[in-house]
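=== RUN LOG ===
request id: a7f3
mode: sequence -> structure
chains: 1
length: 331
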Amino acid sequence: MIKTLKDINWNQVYCFFEVARKQSMKEAGKLLHISTPTVSEQIKKLEKTLGVSLFKRLPRKIVLTTDGEALFHCAKEMFDVGGRFLDTISYNSIGGYAVRVAIQDSTSETVAAAFVSQYWDLYAPYGTVNTVREVFPDRLMEKILTNEVDWGVSLEKPKSLKLNFEEIGSFEILFCCSPRIYRKFRDKEDILRTIPLARSSWDTQTNHAVDDYLREYNIFPDEIIESDHSEFCLGLAQRGRCVAIFAKDTLIKSLWVDTVKAFTLDKPIKIKLYAVWAKASERMISIKKLRELLKMDGSPEQMKDPELQIKVSDISPEKLVSPSRGKNRNS
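=== RESULT ===
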């Protein structure tokens, strides 16, 4: 009977984790450098210790039981923490855990998505990259400081001295209205003074930037509409009911730019984005790779390599199509 953690053979738990992850005792055995019968024996001993069945043995495959799924989720979290533990105390680049990146919500995701995609290429040999959405910058900073995420992309510079940051790019904000409304006015400023302004109800940084921009021109919109739904604002703008705020890259990517008249005044509205990380984490490979990316003039060379994920994965040659067969298949 299990009474304490010392009653568990953690090698057996790790063996179970790899079997569940690979969904194959044979593949797990190759990864662990032990035979398939040894893997099977380890699983049976763990099941006996725990008093539960972890796998359903079906013809030519194994499937996790309900208890097996619960243990797998716990084991995954545990070994992920283990990878971070080794990375924290070791001077070698170990990795072995998935990086968590918080990205602050904004009217544009292009710059942040491109930067994190480039980061994936640098971190690929050590693990994968997950992203989470965060609306409030203060909450994003808190997640970094409490290690809930490894680093983040924010529209604000951090205030805490425990955090480091660096600008990664910017995006441009445009005003959009129907072409008919645009042609009716001699001065663009009067469009913004008299037609209701529709904006996001959650993107406070962009809204503040637009407010500051309009104040410079002594423009105070007659009415402001706030919405969680960009399509609603777009529809109103297309029908001449309002002036909507959109990121330039979002308009171009969605082809909405063909249905509205986009404009700014004398100068563009630029929103900057920053990579933010904890100073205490700078020894970890996840942050080392982030800082390596920040020092680059262009994209990583891996971005041009379509075989990267195959190269960094533990894939046996028999699972891949030979070059000659690949050419025949594509012809």
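=== NOTES ===
The chain is about 45% helix and 20% strand.
The first strand starts at residue 55 and ends at 58.
=== END ===
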